[in-house]
Design goal:
Chain lengths: 398, 375
């Protein structure tokens, strides 16, 4: 005979909202929601009241009005009669320019420094330890300003400057000059050949990989890729009669003309950001390589893999899994740190939209909202890409 | 059988040991081992030497040999030595770099606040302090004492306006309060992000991702220009307080991510064991989870502290007179106009000392705590 027990009949008391763990989390969330809504209403009400009291409205109409200011470093057409949105766009492009240049150089510096810091050479590892510790422990803003100050104080005036590398590169206190590439008729053909050969390389590599998995035969991928990259483009270049040429900077009057003029502000910002971020990347690379246990190398050798294949097929894929996520967050930091451009007068988006446009129009709320939206979008896009990558390289555990 | 002893050689006494080859010991051996082991290593050594020979003499010449230590203006510096550093500017404006425009006769109060800070830090940093628990409670009083000393309370100490504060005093105020408040806030945010209450979780995620997505400079703009829109009309609170709040919020988002990493690294079993012991949420966090998670995340926490301390230089963009803001006023003075590099090197050196000390302390802590693991 079985005994059935009825569950004790419960009576709901109001106190159970807090004492009973089944209801408590809902209670807390409802209270939190209520507080957040109250706070939001309070802030929005304040904004409306304050804007009304100052006779302002909330609109982005100012973006289409002429900006009436000049930007000396720009990647697209812009003059002082252009609208504010175009000034902001120039700023965004300048931010992206310094961010992309910075990420590339920081990666180069960081990887080289990280690998060399592991070197058995005492002098080299000490020098790099000094570099890493020195740069990580000094504010990046100080480094930017210091470099900028040094450029302006130490570099000669354009008239006194001596061009280097056969006149291709000039460093003056007004900035750096490098040759620019000028394209003539037929340049498009050369570019088209280049694109076609890159496509060819990708196709060839796919084919070689498929064949290797099918038959086990290894094709000379590296050699063929290099050949495909260089030979057709070179032939096209000479067949079209050298459609690209370099324009060297030349001294005209008190200044250099021609070539690409990189202002000191851009170069100081770029170098300082790269050196600073490079020091962080060096530590990441070092940690990533050290994290791979020696047993992995030994196991690869035991399987009969040669050292370079061990590196490429065993060590790097594992080290990269550790290295890439923090590396990307450092790229993000670099991009955000590029907003320090405002201190050296490089017109990035903080300098245009958050600086002059804000001051001229008095639209603080709108300008800063747009500015934050830009940085937030950039960060979230990169984070999303990173999460996708992390998902794809994650250890597949069963 | 022939007598073996006649043909065998038997050593009757031990031979003296020969010294190791000269090429493997002493300076020569060390050099060979560490500098010229392989061709690549030799090349690297030579390159490093060339680099040093290219950089060092100029720097030493500028910073030490040709430098001017006492002068009353940049011009007289140049008269003494044309191509050396003019360190005289640091000496001339040293007080300003430390205190900003803090009134002369009240500077002992700032000094006292700094000394008390060191005293208050002892029980926090050094685990062999006698009566550590009680001393820590006293340390909790420090913020109030420091506030009273620096700003004054109007009764015992005369009041000092915020705009008079500057220099490294300001850096310390922002840095120390940011550090002190961002850790607890970061812990709460990390716990919130790991919580199973969806609304709390999304609130924390939104906050963290927003703060981490924008540069600090935009938040400082908000503190300086936008805050008046968000507050009721007529409210106006201290700019330094606003900046401290912004810097704290900024650092706490990064802190939360660091601590979340520590929480994620703990094995699931720790949470289950805490539940099995019948501990409620806060007890299990306080007694089981957080002590371990915080220990794992020490390097990241200290890195965040260092980052926060370095980021205090940005406040000059909204017109606060931190050391960087003060350089502008020094350079505007015709007497010292032109001493940019000297001033920046000086400020960078002081920041380096503080940040390097912090990173060394975190390494010491890490070693000490991980030594406990091996028992």
């Amino acid at each position: 005979m079985s005994v059935t027990t009825l569950p004790p009949t419960e009576t709901f008391r109001i106190g159970m909202l807090w004492t009973d763990t089944r209801y408590r989390s809902s209670t807390i969330q409802v209270i939190a929601l209520f507080i957040v809504m109250l706070l939001g209403a309070f802030l929005i009400n304040n904004i409306i009241v304050n804007l009304a009291a100052q006779g302002q409205d909330f609109s982005f109409g100012f973006l289409t009005e002429p900006a009436y200011y000049d930007i000396n470093q720009r990647l697209i057409e812009y003059d002082s009669r252009s609208p504010h949105w175009k000034a902001a766009l120039v700023g965004i492009l300048n931010t992206l320019l310094v961010a992309v240049l910075g990420c590339i150089l920081a990666t180069v510096i960081g990887v080289v420094a990280g690998v060399l810091r592991l070197s058995k050479n005492w002098l080299v590892s000490r020098l790099l330890a000094v570099y890493v510790e020195g740069c990580r422990n000094v504010p990046v803003l100080m480094q930017i300003l210091l470099l900028y100050g040094i450029f302006i104080e130490i570099l000669p005036r354009p008239k006194a400057a001596t061009p280097m590398l056969d006149g291709a590169f000039v460093a003056t206190n007004r900035g750096f000059y490098i040759p620019s590439v000028i394209s003539h008729d037929g340049a498009g053909v050369v570019l088209a050949v280049l694109v076609a050969s890159v496509a060819g390389i990708i196709y060839f590599r796919r084919w070689a990989r498929a064949r290797q998995e099918r038959t086990g035969q290894i094709a000379p991928v590296m050699l063929v890729s290099l050949g495909l990259l260089i030979i057709p483009t070179t032939i096209a270049f000479f067949a079209m009669g050298s459609p690209f040429s370099l324009e060297y900077p030349e001294l005209k009057g008190f200044n250099y003309k021609g070539g690409i003029h990189m202002r000191n502000s851009l170069v100081a910002l770029w170098l300082a950001l790269s050196i600073y971020t490079g020091a962080f990347i060096a530590e990441i690379v070092r940690a990533g390589i050290q994290a791979i246990s020696k047993g992995q190398t030994e196991a690869a050798y035991a399987l009969g893999l040669r050292p370079n294949r061990t590196m490429r097929l065993i060590i790097l894929p594992q080290a990269l899994r550790i290295i890439i996520p923090p590396m990307i967050s450092n790229y993000l930091n670099l991009t955000k740190n590029s907003s320090l451009a405002i201190f050296v007068g490089y017109m990035d988006v903080t300098g245009t939209l958050g600086g002059i446009t804000l001051n001229q129009t008095g639209r603080a709320l709108e300008s800063i909202l747009l500015l934050m939206a830009f940085y937030l979008t950039a960060s979230l896009l990169i984070s999303a890409a990173m999460n996708k990558y992390n998902e794809s390289v994650k250890l597949k555990e069963r | 059988m022939s007598d073996k002893s006649s043909i065998a050689y038997v050593a009757t006494e031990e031979k003296p040991q020969r010294p190791a080859p000269a090429s493997t010991t002493g300076v020569l051996g060390w050099t060979k081992e560490n500098l010229f082991a392989t061709p690549l290593n030799t090349a690297l050594t030579i390159l490093s030497f060339l680099f040093l020979a290219w950089m060092l003499p100029g720097i030493v010449q500028w910073a030490v040999l040709d430098a001017v230590w006492t002068a009353d203006s940049y011009r007289s510096c140049l008269e003494i030595s044309n191509n050396g550093a003019c360190w005289a500017v640091v000496g001339a404006r040293f007080d300003q770099f430390i205190y900003g425009f803090y009134p002369h006769d009240l500077r002992w109060r700032a000094d006292l606040a700094f000394v008390l800070l060191c005293v208050a830090l002892v029980p926090l940093l050094w685990d062999k302090t006698p009566h550590r628990g009680k001393m820590m409670l006293l340390s909790l009083l420090y913020p109030f004492v420091a506030y009273m000393l620096i700003w004054g309370d109007g009764f015992i100490f005369s009041e000092v306006e915020s705009k008079k504060l500057g220099g490294f005093l300001l850096t310390m105020i922002i840095g120390v309060s940011g550090i002190a408040f961002s850790l607890p806030l970061g812990i709460l945010l990390a716990l919130g992000r790991n919580s199973d209450m969806p609304f709390i979780k999304s609130l924390c995620v939104g906050f963290i991702e927003f703060i981490r997505g924008v540069p600090l400079i935009t938040l400082l703009f908000v503190a300086s220009t936008l805050l008046s829109y968000f507050l009721p009309r007529g409210t106006n609170f201290d700019i330094i307080l606003r900046v401290v709040i912004m810097v704290t919020l900024f650092a706490s988002a990064y802190m939360a991510e660091v601590i979340r990493g520590g929480l994620a690294a703990l094995p699931r079993g720790q949470y289950e064991a805490a539940d099995a012991l019948g501990l409620d949420y806060w007890q299990s966090m306080r007694l089981i989870i957080l002590p371990q998670a915080l220990k794992i995340s020490i390097p990241g926490i200290v890195n965040t502290f260092i980052g926060l301390f370095k980021d205090t230089t940005l406040v000059s963009v909204i017109g606060l007179l931190d050391p960087l803001g003060l350089t502008q006023s020094v350079l505007a003075d015709s007497k010292w106009n032109g001493t940019v590099v000297e001033l920046y090197v000086f400020i960078a050196a002081i920041f380096f000392v503080f940040c390097f000390a912090m990173s060394r302390y975190s390494m010491y802590l890490e070693r000490k705590l991980s030594a406990g693991d091996r028992h």
